[in-house]
Each structure stands twice: as C-alpha cells, then as structure tokens.
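Methods, example record. To illustrate the input and output format used throughout this study, we show the complete record for NADH-quinone oxidoreductase subunit C. The sequence lines were provided to the predictor; the line carrying structure tokens was produced by it.
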Amino acid sequence: MAVVWTDRFADDVTTEATHGGLSVGVPADRWIDALTFARDELSCGFFDWLTGVDEMEEGFAVVAHVYSLQERHHLLVRTRVPRAYPALPTATGVYRGAAWHERETFEMFGIEFEGHPHLVPLLLPDGFEGNPLRKDFVLASRVAKAWPGAKEPGESGHGAPSRRRVRPPGVPDDWGPHA
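The corresponding predicted structure is encoded as:
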C-alpha cells in the first residue's frame, strides 16, 4: 500500500510499516487530501480516533487512525504543525467522527482546526486556563493552595517538626504557598 501513497503524493509523503498497519506522514497542507484519499481510494471509511502529540521544538504531530472494513487494514495518517501557530483545516468534511476528537485535541493541545463547526472546550471545567497535554504545561494546581489538615508527621502542631516540603516535578520554586 506504500507504493499507492508515493504514486499519489510523490515526495510529499513518508511511509512506514508499523504494528500491522501503515503509517503515512504528509505535510499540513496535504492533510485533507490524504484523509480523503484514504477514505475514497483505500476504502478507509471507519474513522477511529485523532489526537495530538507534543514534540516540543518540532511542533505538534496530529495523528488520525482510520480503518478499512472491506480490506481489513489499519492506517495512521499524521502531519506536523508548528508550535508558533498550530492549525490544520478540519477533517469533519471527510469524517464526521472527527468533530469530537478535534475539539478534544484543541482543548488539550491548543491546536486550531480551521472551519470546525463548533470548536469549543469539551472536557475541562469552565475557566480552565492552558492546554494540559502540552509538555510545557505546569501542573501547579497541587501547590496553588495549602492542603487543609495534617498530612505529614508533625504538621498538626503537635510532636516532631514536619519534613521539608518538596514541590512536584516541573513546578517552579516561586509557585504556590511558601511555608
């Protein structure tokens, strides 16, 4: 199946056999073409999932898993968007099932899906700031306020003094209460 992709997309595609299927990488401007080709020419009519991967300096990878019920083959279609402005056209015109996954990826990674019919937060509470699946996101909620009550020996005000408090990994020293 890799030959079919190189015949169609020439130098714009990379292919790799992975875990019993094919993984295809395309530039962001060919994202919709690749998904449409998978659906129409390769019978990959079953849309399984779409997600992002934070690759730090390289930007974000966006990966979609589709499947052909007729041919019984899996396909991963992936692309990369820059960290400075992570955006792709929406795949909802190709796969209706992409709508929910794009909303989740938008919320968790901050990747815009241009033309999405309803790109609003899906899972996080109202007022939540940031994109929690980005590697540079600091999970500071655990240190934002002191935990009520005793949690370490000596913190109740009776007995031995408490141990030195250690901040969770990745939390800067100037975050949270200073005790």
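Annotations derived from this record:
The beta strands are 14-18, 21-25, 46-54, 60-68, 73-81, 87-89, 112-114.
The mean pLDDT is 87.
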